[in-house]
């Protein structure tokens, strides 16, 4: 967990480290940090953006991305965003709409305020969409020199103009930090043209705001790692990890630019930009990853991986098979507070084998099951799948959670596709997701929901608290045989026009067959790992009961679930499935705050172990569980030990 610093200490640190290259503005409202425009990029003529009085460069992506431009800055406190368009503003939209951001337009300007880190897509008239990535201030900026710092420019002579290859200099810095037992490779503002880079154990790479590690675009600068049969092109892992590496971090406000659109279309060669491969404890925080020729970020056969505050930008018009983020055969993965734009899937979860999967031929190790993958607070814009499990399910996929997230536009919003392999895709949760609209590939039918079991089973899929502003065309829920079925589907509080649906027809889920069991509606059963809010030391873990459970809850910790609709008839009891090796303490259920109206509580007792599960039933206080509320599950204990693990609860 990142350590919090006092505000004054933060400003002193940033002034010392960044003032030479980064505009920093402080006011009574807060602090704004704008980053210098790298020399290989230009600003758009369609918009200018300011945060308070600070100019934020809007990067023109016309040559690469076609449909959108973007900008990035960091701030604290509250800031006023002013967008000045190149023409009078007649219409506008600020997404995610679920955030309820209101704006004022006047002539060519649009003004609104932000008070927390937010990723937005703003549409004005028929101009290109504008992605605004407003990050929190950095709290972990290292010094650019000193003990344990390996500066690629000042110590290793890397060319920061992009004129000559910096591959050797950057790799030498990584190697030296690794040989010393660990250190920080510092990449100052500038452009660093590079071939393949290999990340090694105990090395952090800090990308200063305004820095770009950019692919050279020349296949001769790379090792060929795979052949993509569907595109008939060779490809490379641009930046990847040494086999069995451990404890690697990439962070900052800089950019990794694959230059993939150019290399794919000019030199017939693909790249994956970032490939954590057969590694452990891999973290990416705050950077931008842009312009891949193939799947951009592929987390493969790795465990304990975190991506947070990351921006993933790809062409979203021309280049098929350029997924933004693919999680493959990995365990304990958290993707939190991210935005992704791509033509192909934005967030996808796959498992493969070696014998029949072209891209997997050179992956180290053996095929692995995938489990405990959580996506939390993500914004997706795709012409294909926004959030998709599959289509590759050649190994078990168990415990995939997507929650607190937003679909701007796509072809398929929330999908599980079983097209390759026979193992199960199971225990999958889509929770608290807002679907705005669709923008499918030419000739295909848009749909918000897709469960297609063609080669193996799909089991136990929960859709909870889903707001559908659009439904698309006909959605699919189908199996293909007695061994390729769909079962255990639950639709809780899936709203159309603000009203919870009670039939498949209301949701346009009409392409079904007898190999798909009828789903359950509005069961008031909640998987603990699908929580929408939390406080304290709450952790996910694989459960022997299947899927994930929530652990670590000790005194004062809580998890919360939004938009729980009890209906007009008060519920009278709760079933909860718990496991504990301790006795003492309580799990309490409250309305609308951690200490709000008490619904009821369970007095904790040992069940025989932390994975020995038992269903408990507790009564509810009369007349309390009625209407629509946020339900808080609060852990209470007189000491600091864990109360219990929780896998689900259900109101009755």
Automatic annotation (TrEMBL):
It comes from the Bacteria. SMART domains: CBD_IV (SM00606). Pectinolytic enzyme involved in the degradation of xylogalacturonan (xga), a galacturonan backbone heavily substituted with xylose, and which is one important component of the hairy regions of pectin. Activity requires a galacturonic acid backbone substituted with xylose. The keyword Signal applies. Residues 1-28 form the signal peptide. Residues 524-652 form the CBM6 domain. Pfam families: CBM_6 (PF03422), Glyco_hydro_28 (PF00295). Gene3D superfamilies: Galactose-binding domain-like, Single-stranded right-handed beta-helix, Pectin lyase-like. InterPro entries: CBM6 (IPR005084), Cellulose-bd_IV (IPR006584), Galactose-bd-like_sf (IPR008979), Glyco_hydro_28 (IPR000743), Pectin_lyas_fold (IPR012334), Pectin_lyase_fold/virulence (IPR011050). The keyword Glycoprotein applies. Belongs to the glycosyl hydrolase 28 family. It comes from Paenibacillus terreus. Keywords: Carbohydrate metabolism, Glycoprotein, Glycosidase, Hydrolase, Polysaccharide degradation, Repeat, Signal. This is Carbohydrate-binding protein.
């Amino acid at each position: 967990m990142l350590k919090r610093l006092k505000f004054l200490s933060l400003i002193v640190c940033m002034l010392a480290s960044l003032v030479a290259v980064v505009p920093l503005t402080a006011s009574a409202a807060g602090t704004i940090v704008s980053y210098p425009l790298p020399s290989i990029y230009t600003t758009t003529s369609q918009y200018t953006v300011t945060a308070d009085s600070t100019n934020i460069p809007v990067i023109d992506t016309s040559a690469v991305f076609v449909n959108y431009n973007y900008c990035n800055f960091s701030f604290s406190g509250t800031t006023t965003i002013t967008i000045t368009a190149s023409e009078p503003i007649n219409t506008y939209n600020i997404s995610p709409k679920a955030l309820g951001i209101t704006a004022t337009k006047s002539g060519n300007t649009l003004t609104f305020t932000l008070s927390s880190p937010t990723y937005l897509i703003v549409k004005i008239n028929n101009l290109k969409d504008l992605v605004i990535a407003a990050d929190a201030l950095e709290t972990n900026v290292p010094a650019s020199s000193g003990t344990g710092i390996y500066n690629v420019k000042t110590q290793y002579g890397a060319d920061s103009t992009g004129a000559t290859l910096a591959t050797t200099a950057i790799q030498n810095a990584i190697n030296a930090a690794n040989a010393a037992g660990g250190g920080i490779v510092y990449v100052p503002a500038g452009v660093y043209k590079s071939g393949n880079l290999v990340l090694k154990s105990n090395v952090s790479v800090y990308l200063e705001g305004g820095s770009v590690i950019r692919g050279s675009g020349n296949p001769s600068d790379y090792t060929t790692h795979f052949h993509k049969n569907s595109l008939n092109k060779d490809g490379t892992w641009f930046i990847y990890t040494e086999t069995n590496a451990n404890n690697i971090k990439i962070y900052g406000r800089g950019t990794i630019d694959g230059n993939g659109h150019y290399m794919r279309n000019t030199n017939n060669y693909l790249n994956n930009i970032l490939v954590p491969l057969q590694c452990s404890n891999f973290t990416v925080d705050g950077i931008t990853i842009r312009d891949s020729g193939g799947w951009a970020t592929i987390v493969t056969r790795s465990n304990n991986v975190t991506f947070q505050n990351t921006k993933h930008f790809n062409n979203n018009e021309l280049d098929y098979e350029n997924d933004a983020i693919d999680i493959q055969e990995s365990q304990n993965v958290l993707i939190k507070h991210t935005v992704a734009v791509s033509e192909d899937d934005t967030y996808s979860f796959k498992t493969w084998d070696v014998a029949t999967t072209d891209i997997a031929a050179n992956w180290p190790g053996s095929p692995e099951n995938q489990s405990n993958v959580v996506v939390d607070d993500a914004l997706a814009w795709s012409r294909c799948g926004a959030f998709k499990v599959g289509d590759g399910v050649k190994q078990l996929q168990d415990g995939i959670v997507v929650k607190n997230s937003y679909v701007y536009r796509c072809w398929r919003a929330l999908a599980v596709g079983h097209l390759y392999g026979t193992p199960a895709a199971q225990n999958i949760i889509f929770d608290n997701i807002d679907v705005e609209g669709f923008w499918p590939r030419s000739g295909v039918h848009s749909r918000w929901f897709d469960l297609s079991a063609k080669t193996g089973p799909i089991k136990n899929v929960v859709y909870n608290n889903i707001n559908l502003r659009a439904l698309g065309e006909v959605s699919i829920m189908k199996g293909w045989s007695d061994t390729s079925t769909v079962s255990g589907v639950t639709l809780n509080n899936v709203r159309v026009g603000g009203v919870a649906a009670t039939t498949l027809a209301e949701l346009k889920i009409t392409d079904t067959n007898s190999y798909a069991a009828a789903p359950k509606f509005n069961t008031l059963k909640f998987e603990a790992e699908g929580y929408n809010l939390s406080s304290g030391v709450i952790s996910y873990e694989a459960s022997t009961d299947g899927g994930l459970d929530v652990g670590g809850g000790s005194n004062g910790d809580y998890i919360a679930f939004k938009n729980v609709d009890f209906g007009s008839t008060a519920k009278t009891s709760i079933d909860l499935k718990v496991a504990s090796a301790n006795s003492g303490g309580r799990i309490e259920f409250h309305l609308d705050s951690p200490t709000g109206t008490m619904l009821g509580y369970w007095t904790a007792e040992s069940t025989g172990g932390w994975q020995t599960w038992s269903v408990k039933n507790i009564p509810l206080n009369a007349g309390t569980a009625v209407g629509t509320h946020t339900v808080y599950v609060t852990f209470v204990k007189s000491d600091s030990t864990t109360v219990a693990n929780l896998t689900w609860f259900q109101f009755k």
